[in-house]
Write a structure and sequence with these properties.
Length: 246
Amino acid sequence: MADWVFGINPVRESLGGRRRRPLELFLARDGGGRLRELHDAAVAAGVPVRVRSAADLEKLTGNPRHQGAALRLEPFAYLDLPDLLAACRASPAPGFLLALDGVTDPHNLGALVRSAAAASCQGVILPKDNSCPVTGVVDRAAAGALDHIPLCQVVNLARALDELKDAGFWIYGLAGEGAQDLFRSDLRGPVVLVAGSEGSGLRPNVRRHCDLLLSIPMAGGVGSLNVSVATGIALFEVLRQRRLSS
């Protein structure tokens, strides 16, 4: 079964993506210049283009916010953990991964994937259960980033963290009551950042498998941040430290 991506920016990035083959592009009739650009990009990539009414596109995507563009893609393929580790070892940069413990909101997952890709993270690890799967909503929120960063699905996240420790990674859990300030931590080596669910944060068993818990210092009377915002800050702190040391 194929997946759908809709919206001008997600479709544009997915047409140029490397991980999933575009199968068919559907465009609304009487579209403007941005839809013509998508048409030309699809033709150049050898992707068939179909013209339909806006109502037909809403039926195809199940969403009225398609912006006149919908792209049918190969089904999303998750990477196995051994393959993700092999890709990290092949990279000249220190390993840098994000693990998500129970993120169930598709908008948050899409935002997290996009932030991870923008921060040069090498992959995102998700538990098979109690986690949002990749859907069209996730793809739209990620705005095409799913084609630029691998996602790995594991049966047991705690066990996967142990395997990553054995591979030389340090495991840092993100928690509001973390024992150490994020900005005072050395994140230049191989690291896995672990972020918890939107409501309850990291599960106790996952916490126990972290080497250290990190917190973001808060000011201005604000007690907490959305998981995608907090994790984005941590991801870019890793990137900042590595650029300063290079």
